[in-house]
């Protein structure tokens, strides 16, 4: 396990506990994602290393409009402990906790061409049945798949692409 994830875990758990108690998991998720995106910008990353930057400056810079005081407190704590670079890991861990609590599986469907809404609905229904949870789909296009789709749902990967089938056939023939 990487050191960044180890350091980020307590912050993600604390943020999750506060957000869950306030019933604001989606809002916190969006606010954390915003802060991580802003902090990852190269010009902002250089600015965050400036010793003249104050706690209030960081909170104003990284907080989306309408963020709660508790979120400001988290950013201040990250600033005080020099943990702002951990924001991407905190977001990832927070979202894992959120989706587990909400019983949601995130799946990425990569296909050779754009899939019709009816096809996506069929895939979503099949995944919902398989996992017994709600499914949140993300789509991507990869023309190298030739046809079919590749579904990545965390620990489960379903390769129904023509490229994958050809690779499996080639492997079987070479053995």
TrEMBL record:
GO terms for molecular function: proton-transporting ATP synthase activity, rotational mechanism. Transmembrane segments: none annotated. It is found in: Cell membrane; Membrane. It holds the Pfam family OSCP. It is a peripheral membrane protein. Keywords: ATP synthesis, Cell membrane, CF(1), Hydrogen ion transport, Ion transport, Membrane, Transport. Its main location: membrane. GO terms for cellular component: plasma membrane; proton-transporting ATP synthase complex. HAMAP family: ATP_synth_delta_bact. This is ATP synthase subunit delta. It comes from Thermomonas fusca. The lineage of its organism: Bacteria, Pseudomonadati, Pseudomonadota, Gammaproteobacteria, Lysobacterales.
């Amino acid at each position: 396990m990487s050191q960044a994830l180890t350091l980020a875990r307590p912050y993600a758990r604390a943020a999750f506990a506060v957000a869950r108690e306030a019933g604001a998991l989606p809002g916190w998720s969006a606010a954390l994602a915003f802060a991580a995106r802003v902090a990852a910008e190269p010009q902002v990353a250089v600015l965050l290393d400036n010793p003249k930057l104050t706690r209030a400056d960081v909170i104003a810079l990284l907080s989306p409009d309408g963020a709660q005081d508790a979120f400001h407190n988290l950013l201040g704590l990250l600033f005080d402990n020099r943990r702002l670079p951990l924001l991407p890991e905190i977001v990832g861990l927070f979202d894992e906790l959120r989706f587990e609590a909400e019983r949601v599986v995130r799946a990425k469907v990569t296909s050779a061409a754009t899939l019709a809404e009816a096809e996506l609905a069929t895939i979503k229904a099949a995944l919902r049945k398989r996992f017994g949870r709600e499914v949140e789909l993300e789509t991507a296009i990869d023309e190298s798949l030739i046809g079919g789709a590749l579904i990545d749902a965390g620990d489960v990967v379903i390769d129904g692409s023509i490229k994958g089938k050809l690779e499996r056939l080639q492997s079987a023939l070479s053995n």
